[in-house]
Amino acid sequence: MNERARALTAGVALLERAIDYTLGSLRVVSPAVLCRPTPCARWNLQALLDHMQDSFEALNEAALGHVATTRSPVPVGGPAPIGGPALRNSALRNPALLLRDCATEVLGSWAGTIRTEVISVGNVPMTAPMVAVAGAIEIAVHGWDIARACGERRPIPPALAEELLDLAHLFVTDQDRPVRFAARRRPPALGSAQDHLLAYLGRDPK
């Protein structure tokens, strides 16, 4: 296996672990909590789920080699549901159900990819491992956001948090603030890798 293939394998494995963690957070979402605030400033849980729907769609496109920079607007009230009447009604009541299906689709898309060449993200060239790693950071941290909005404490697994922390320092710069991420915060004394990751990405880890 050459170096590019090894990097892709590692990036996909990290993305799979991030999605597995976030799937657990999505299971605690109910229609009653969609209006709750999240650690993402100015976003309630419904808005965060809508954003994640867009992120999963982008990751699916990336597996095919190109990510569009513009998408159709997400309808007010959540993503457009798919499937038969029962699935559509369930997704309207709880969009997390549809998002779980999207996450599973992303896992399948990336598990089967052998793409090692450059992926076009709009007009910005990125390698497949870079896209997978960036997706892993975003998905894992939003998984934590979802759990907190639902009143649950679901720590990011320590080994995953350590890897994401190292990579976040490479992938998230001052140019990403305040549009993609809020200003970094000071982590607690003797904080864990998760605490440092969340603080670096503008969240209060307490």
From TrEMBL:
Alphabetical list of InterPro entries matching this protein: CHP03086 (IPR017520), DinB/YfiT-like (IPR034660), Maleyloyr_isom (IPR017517), MDMPI_metal-binding (IPR024344)
Specify the domain of life of the species encoding this protein.
Bacteria
Which intervals hold domain Mycothiol-dependent maleylpyruvate isomerase metal-binding?
Answer: 16-147
| Protein name listed in UniProt | TIGR03086 family metal-binding protein
Organism listed in the record = Nonomuraea spiralis
